[in-house]
Amino acid sequence: MRSFEQTRRQTWQAPWMDEGEEHERGLARFLVGEWRARFRESLAPAKRRDTLRSQLPHLTHLDPRFATPTHESGRVLAAQLREKGAEDHCYLLSEDPDLDGRELPLDEALAAIADSGSPHATFISCVPGKLAYFHGKESGDRYLLELPTK
């Protein structure tokens, strides 16, 4: 039987969408309005997706209402994300082809991205469309992304 907390965190998923797609489409919610549709449209076709991934280092369209700058270590970020509802695994949308489209343990993903000073821009999606981390190419481009709960 599911606990209240597990039920509260459950998100609706369209039957035709796998979990990776749900995470990717949910990332668009953290962008300013006019860029959301463009982001979603760029996910599906392989050629457009490659273009989207190559543009991640230059992403300047995060919605400031949902993006909190951070310079924390991976360990601290993991604790903050878990406190806000992240589970043990996360999904990555990354400029790095070795990381893109992978589901990893949260601690491992943050160690590979935040702690290593990765030169690759990467979204780490924890709760689709509700909680994520963005690691930009520049050291000042690190954001905890969270939609407010209703």
Measured distance between first and last alpha carbons: 25 Å
Overall structural domain count: 1
Supply the number of helical segments. Answer: 6
Q: What order do the SSEs take from the amino end to the carboxyl end, as H and E?
A: HHHHEHEEHEEE
Average pLDDT score: 86
Q: Major β-sheet, in short?
A: 6 strands, antiparallel
% residues in beta strands: 15-25%
Strand sequence of the main sheet, in spatial order?
A: 1-6-5-4-2-3
**Helical/strand content category:** alpha+beta
Number-wise, the strands total 6
* Rg, Å, rounded: 14 Å
Shape: globular
Low-confidence segments, given as residue ranges, are: 1-17
> Which percent bin holds the helix content?
25-40%
Please write out the topology.
Blueprint: H1 4-9, H2 19-27, H3 33-41, H4 46-55, E1 67-69, H5 74-83, E2 89-94, E3 103-105, H6 106-115, E4 122-127, E5 131-135, E6 142-146
Antiparallel strand pairs: 1-6, 2-3, 2-4, 4-5, 5-6
Helix pairs in contact: 5-6
Question: Quick recap of the structure?
Answer:
This protein is of the alpha+beta class. It is built from six helices and six strands; from the N terminus they run ααααβαββαβββ.
Would you give an account of this structure?
With about 150 residues, this protein is an alpha+beta fold. The chain has helices at about 5-10, 20-25, 35-40, 45-55, 75-85, 105-115, and strands at about 65-70, 90-95, 105, 120-125, 130-135, 140-145. The chain has one domain (about 20-145). A six-stranded antiparallel β-sheet has the order 1-6-5-4-2-3. Strand 4 (about 120-125) and strand 5 (about 130-135) form a beta hairpin. Residues about 1-15 have low confidence and may be disordered.
